[in-house]
Amino acid sequence: MATRIPLISGNWKMHHNHFEALATVQKLSYLLGDDRNGRVEVSIHAPFTDLRSLQTSIEQDDMDISLGAQHCHWEDKGAFTGEVSPAMLAKLNVRYVIAGHSERREVFGETDEWVNNKVLAILRHGMTPILCCGETLDEREGDRTEDKVAGQVRAGLAGVSPEQVGALVLAYEPIWAIGTGRTATADDAQATCALVRGTVAEVAGAEAAAAVRVQYGGSVKPANAAELMGQPDIDGALVGGASLDADDFAKIVRGIDA
Ligand code: PEP
Question: Does a structural domain hold residue 248?
């Protein structure tokens, strides 16, 4: 049975300029210290304009925090005004890149095909995708959670080898729980994360399914993090709002109930 080291990722969305980003990461690193001993990994997914400053600070101070991005294009270069390429992120030593966050799917019209292109491009540049999936409230109430989530997982992993699948991260994020203060119950989150893992087993085999890390995301806070992350198929969290504050995020990482 593979050992899965939980990954707790802070998605800052469009918050924190580079000054605020530096202050937040330095405080987080101070609060977390370096006694995690490989028990839990932490990544920060900052806006593009913060990445170079954060890279310098993380590397200079040898912080035990991985640099993450929230999005990228799938081409290495070209006429794609406003976009950032995976090659550019890799050059900054970005380790994890979120692909298919529901806000990008819903607000910017990202399709399953684009998300799959991004997953493949992120892997091609030696980084790890965090592939997001999740259902709307309508889909949940209409009993369509399974179809939606399994469909997104299958589409996102098309063309990815079983070895690569085992090394990547999936994030189950019920859309109705993102930024709303509503959280899935630990039982519901566990059931859908188990469904995600089962879908990975179907497309990439049992070994990949045992190794892949599945995060839960959706209003994770210090008060609910430990119970959610204590579920057998949940290997960490993708945290939005509560990751903006170093004190709250550190409490989540340490599993301390506020
Ligand atoms: C997210 O940004 O992916 C997220 C889950 O946000 P929040 O924790 O604020 O719900």
Answer: yes
Q: Give dist(CA 139, CA 25) in Å, integer.
A: 37
* Amino acid in the structure at residue 3: T
The pLDDT > 70 percentage for the chain reads 98
Q: Is 173 a catalytic residue?
A: yes
Average pLDDT, whole number, for the chain? Answer: 96
Q: Is-catalytic flag, 146?
A: no
* Range of the structural domain that residue 218 is part of: 65-257
**pLDDT band (50, 70, 90) for residue 2:** low
| Pocket mutation for ligand 1, best pick of 7, 11, 221, 252 (most atoms within 8 Å of C-beta) | 11
Distance 118 CA to ligand 1 centre (A): 21
b/e burial code for range 114-151 (CB count within 10 A of at least 16 → b): bbbbbbbbbbebebbbbbbbbbbeebbeeeebeebbbe
* pLDDT digits 0-9 by tens, 70-82: 999 999 999 999 9
Q: Is residue 178 within 6 Å of ligand 1 at its C-beta?
A: yes
11 falls within a domain: no
CA of 242 to the centre of ligand 1 (A): 8
Q: Give the separation between CA 255 and CA 258, rounded to whole angstroms.
A: 9
114 within a domain of the structure (yes/no): yes
Provide the pLDDT for residue 1: 57
pLDDT of residue 256: 65
Instruction: Quote the pLDDT of residue 9.
Output: 98
Enumerate residues 6+ apart whose C-beta is below 8 A from 28.
Answer: 42, 44, 65, 246, 249, 250
